[in-house]
Design brief:
The complex is a heterodimer of chains A (about 110) and B (about 120). Chain A is mainly beta. Chain A contains no helices and 9 strands. In chain A, the strands form 2 sheets. In chain A, strands 1, 3, 4, 7, 8 and 9 form a 6-stranded mixed sheet that branches. Chain B is built from no helices and 11 strands. The chains are: A mainly beta (about 110), B mainly beta (about 120). Chains A and B meet through strand 4, strand 7 and strand 8 of A and strand 5 and strand 10 of B.
């Protein structure tokens, strides 16, 4: 099973919106509504931001939203803030295993 | 407070083995699957495998089959990951992570994560 495909980088100015894509296949992203998104600051452990495609854990701001269309999942961050600068990783259930994307470094300009 | 605390950094020579621990606190240890994920320097996350604390049943990523073993000791609320036949490609931070309580689905996301354990393989 191959990793999910994410763009290596993304950027936006404060207050703007940015969308990060996560491309899988019909065996993972396209088959299951079990896509998660994680934020990771340098030297820290990942933090769950979205689960089951579009659900937010308690404490995650509603500026973060997730969606899916076919084999592609997306994370949208609206009203960008300086603290959003981090790496973002997607994952998908793949029938007993979990696949991750390569990660996207988000820069807030 | 739900917490996973991992053992400290390790240095091994090529061909050796390493065993990393992950101690859980703040919740019923047998209630949630525990996963292991690694991250090579400057790279993305890579799923290693998972263990069901109640039964000890495991599932491993195909690329690690035969080299990785996940075990648990319920008496001390701890999960272990042992990786054998180490090469320089195994140099990475290894994380344990608990399946979240947000849903009872097949994959409710991983929350929380341990702090990570750096394993360095060098001759």
């Amino acid at each position: 099973q191959s990793a999910l495909t994410q763009p290596p980088s993304a950027s936006g100015s404060p207050g703007q919106s940015v969308t990060i894509s996560c491309i899988g296949t019909s065996s993972d992203v396209g088959r299951y509504n079990y896509v998660s998104w994680y934020r990771q600051y340098p030297g820290k452990a990942p933090q769950l931001m979205i689960y089951e495609v579009d659900k937010r854990p308690s404490g995650v701001p509603d500026r973060f939203s997730g969606s899916k269309s076919g084999d592609t999942a997306s994370l949208t961050i609206s009203g960008l803030q300086a603290e959003d600068e981090a790496h973002y990783h997607c994952s998908s259930y793949a029938g007993g295993s979990t696949l991750f994307g390569g990660g996207t470094k988000l820069t807030v300009l | 407070q739900v917490q996973l605390v991992q053992s400290g950094a390790e240095v091994r020579k090529p061909g050796a083995s390493v065993k990393v621990s992950c101690k859980a606190s703040g919740y019923s240890f047998t209630g949630n699957f525990i996963h292991w994920v690694r991250q090579a320097p400057g790279q993305g996350l890579e799923w290693v495998g998972r263990i069901i604390p109640t039964t000890g049943v495991t599932k491993y990523a195909q690329i690690f089959q035969g080299r990785v073993t996940l075990t648990r000791d319920t008496s001390v609320r701890t999960t272990y990951m042992e990786l054998t036949g180490l090469t320089s490609d195994d140099t990475a931070v290894y994380f344990c992570a608990r399946e979240s309580d947000y849903s009872t689905s097949w994959d409710p996301g991983f929350d929380p994560w341990g702090q990570g354990t750096l394993v360095t393989v060098s001759s």
